[in-house]
Amino acid sequence: MIIKNMYGKVIFDGADLSGANLYRADLSGADLSGANLTGADLSRADLSGANLYRADLSGADLSGANLYRADLSRADLSGANLSGANLYRADLLRANLYRAYLSGADLSGANLTGANLTGANLTGANLTGANLSGAKGLVKIIGVEIGNYYWKRFNKGLNNNGYQFKVGLNKLRKGKPNTKNTKYYTEKFADDERILCSYPGFHFASRSWCAIHYSNRPLEAKIRIPEGAKINEPWASDGKASADMIEILQVFDTKTGEDVTNLFKIG
Fold it and tell me: How far apart are CA 86 and CA 43, in angstroms?
C-alpha cells in the first residue's frame, strides 16, 4: 500500500517496487520498511533519513545514492551496487552486504554492527568512525605479515613525505632533530584499520600497484617488514598498507631498471 503521512511523506511500507526505475528520485524521509526493491534503479536517489528497515535491496543499483542517516538495519543489500554512495551515519545493523559493491562509498560514522560483509568490495571506501563490532566476512586484500616482501616508490634522492630514507632499517621519527629550523615530535603510528592511508606510517604495496599509482617517481625499493613492526592494513584498502618501520633491501631506477642500492647505503 502506498499512502502519504500527515507531513506529505510517501509511505511505501511493504510495497513491491522490484525493478522499479527510481533514478534520482526524491525519497528523503520515506518509509520503505519491508519494501521489495530487488533490482531497482535507485542510482543518485535521495534516500536521506529514509526508513529501509528489513527492505529487500538485493541487486539494486544505489550508486551515488544519498543514504545519509538512513535506517538500513537488517536490510538485504546482497549484490547491490553502492559505489560512491553517501552512507554517512547510516544504520546498517545486521544488514546483509554479501558481495555488495561499496567502492568509494562514504561509510564514515555508519553502524555496521553484526553486518555481513562477506565478499563485499570496500576498495577506497571511507570507514572513518564506523562501528564494525561483530561484522562478518571482512577480508584484507594484501595479507601483510612480518618478514614478507613488498615495494615502495620514492622521489629523487630516496625522499618521500618529508623523510630521507636509507638502505636498511627505517623507523618513524622520535624527538627533535639537531637543526634549529625544523621541529619533530615523536610520531605515533596510526593503526586505525578503518582509515585509508592513515599517517604517520610508511605505506607500501605490490610492485605492480606502485608502478600504476606512482609511475612518475624515479626510484622503487624492495622492502621487508622487520620483526617487531606494527602493521596497519585497512579494511577498505585499495591495495596498500603501512607499518611503523620498514627495511629497505634494494633500490632500483624505475626507468632503466638498474640496481642503484649502493647510492643510498649509509656507513
Answer: 11
Same domain, 2 and 131: yes
What is the widest separation between alpha-carbon atoms in the chain? 78
pLDDT at 1: 39
**Cut 0.85: pTM above it:** no
Q: Are 15 and 34 in contact (CB under 8 A)?
A: no
Of 201, 264, 261, which is closest to residue 237 (Cα–Cα)?
201
Secondary structure class of 261 (helix, strand, coil): helix
Could you list the residue range(s) of the whole structural domain that residue 133 is in? 1-139
Cis upstream peptide for 234 (omega within 30°): no
Residue 144 is assigned to a structural domain of this protein = no
Residue 124 and residue 157 in one domain: no
**179, 73: one domain:** no
Contact by Cβ (8 Å): 124, 236: yes
Q: What are phi and psi of 211, to 5 degrees?
A: -65, -35
How many domains in the chain?
2
Enumerate the H helices of the chain as residue ranges. Answer: 207-213
Strands 149-154, 219-224: parallel, antiparallel or unpaired by DSSP? antiparallel
> Which residues of the chain fall short of a pLDDT of 70?
1-13, 175-185, 267
Residues 19 and 129 both lie in one domain: yes
